[in-house]
């Protein structure tokens, strides 16, 4: 029998401060291990904002987002919680008056909500991000909302 491991996204623990969640032991079940992912600020966004799941029928929308070296997103904001995990490369996000943050391979966080920001690849190779939107059954909520620039 082949053994393998996978990462498990857990929303149950509140981790405060600016550090990543403490490493938790893997959970084994039928020769499968579930290794928790470190998520910065599990119960708040990267900017320390509180968030709630949207009302209505819940729906998850998952995307593999690829940003080419040197490429920038337009200034935008999100209406619903977005879990982001850097699969490869590195990403810098400019939050205007809240500063810039750089996320590298293996880092995960909840993106700012209703706050204009711009992301760009800061690596010589493409940046790949796994994005999971916690939305309701309404695809228009998932599309980033354009904004004029930094707040």
Describe the protein in words:
There is one protein chain. The protein is an all-beta fold. The protein has a domain at 46-146: Jelly Rolls. The protein has no helices and twelve strands. The strands form four sheets. Strands 4-11-6-9 form a four-stranded antiparallel sheet, with no helix packed on it. A three-stranded mixed sheet has the order 1-3-2, with no helix packed on it. Strands 8-7-10 form a three-stranded antiparallel sheet, with no helix packed on it. The radius of gyration is 16 Å and the shape is globular.
Tell me, rounded to a whole number, the average pLDDT: 83
User: What is the CATH architecture term of the domain at 46-146?
Assistant: Sandwich
Structure summary, number of beta strands: 12
Q: Low-confidence parts, pLDDT < 50 over ≥5 residues? A: 1-23
Fraction of residues in H or I helices: under 10%
Written as H for each helix and E for each strand, in order along the chain, the element string is EEEEEEEEEEEE
Gist?
Helix content is 0%, strand content 40%. It is mainly beta.
Sum up the structure in keywords.
151 residues, Jelly Rolls, 3-stranded mixed β-sheet, 0% helix, 4-stranded antiparallel β-sheet, mainly beta
């Amino acid at each position: 029998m082949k053994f393998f491991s996978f990462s498990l996204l857990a929303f149950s623990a509140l981790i405060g401060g600016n550090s990543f969640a403490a490493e938790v032991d893997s959970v084994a079940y039928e020769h499968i291990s579930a290794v928790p992912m470190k998520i910065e600020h599990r119960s708040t966004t990267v900017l320390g904002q509180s968030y709630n799941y949207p009302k209505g029928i819940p729906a998850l929308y998952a995307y593999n987002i690829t940003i080419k070296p040197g490429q920038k997103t337009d200034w935008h904001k999100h209406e619903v919680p977005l879990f982001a995990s850097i699969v490869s490369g590195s990403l810098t996000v400019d939050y205007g008056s809240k500063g810039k943050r750089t996320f590298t391979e293996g880092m995960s966080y909840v993106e700012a909500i209703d706050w204009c920001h711009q992301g760009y690849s800061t690596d010589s190779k493409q940046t790949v991000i796994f994005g999971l939107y916690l939305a309701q059954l309404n695809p228009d909520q998932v599309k980033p909302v354009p904004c004029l620039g930094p707040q």
